[in-house]
Every structure is written in C-alpha cells, then in structure tokens.
Amino acid sequence: MSDLATDELIDLQKSADAEHARLAGLDSEEHRAHWEQWRVAAERVQAAVTEHAASAGLKRCEVEQAVKKAARHSEGTAGA
C-alpha cells in the first residue's frame, strides 16, 4: 500500500461505506439508528486520515482522496 492510503485507512473507509449503504430503504426509526452508526464510522475515518496525514507530513485532502479511491475501487480486500 502507498504512503497515502494504508490498509487500515482503507478498511475504515470500507466500513463507513458499508454503514452508509445500510441506510437505503430503512424506515425512519431504523434509519436514525443506522445513521448514527454511519456517522460514528465516518468520524473514525476522518480522524484517522487527519492523524495519518499529519504524522506523515502529507496533504490531508490527498490522503482522503487516495483512501476513498482505494476503498471504493478495489475488490477482495478486507473491511466491507
């Protein structure tokens, strides 16, 4: 994996994406409950991306883009 998108960051993004996908078609009460799970997962991704970028001296936006691209365009890796 590159310096921009680590396996851990990709797995976190896939988890957040999976939580978001679960929102489709839910009624209001279920939607609220699952929305909260997605929000927490998304916050974890954002915090991890920020921390990785800062510690590696990288641009945060480039790290986020690389992570999302790797998570959403790769098949057969852990996470989702």
Explain this structure to me?
There is one protein chain. The chain is mainly alpha-helical. 71% of the residues lie in helices and 0% in strands. The protein has helices at residues 7-21, 28-56, 60-72. It is elongated.
General form: elongated
Q: On the 0-100 scale, what is the average pLDDT?
A: 90
Give the number of helices: 3
The largest β sheet comes out as: none
How much beta, percentage-wise? under 5%
Distance between the termini: 18 Å
Quick one: how many beta strands? 0
Structural class: mainly alpha
Helix content: over 70%
| Rg over C-alpha atoms, rounded to the nearest angstrom | 13 Å
The helix/strand series, from N terminus to C terminus, equals HHH
**Spans of 5+ residues with little confidence (pLDDT < 50)?**
none
Characteristics:
single chain, 80 residues, mainly alpha, 3 helices, elongated
Q: Which SSEs are present, and which pair or pack?
A:
Layout: H1 7-21, H2 28-56, H3 60-72
What is the compact description of this entry?
The chain has 80 residues and is mostly helical. It is built from three helices and no strands.
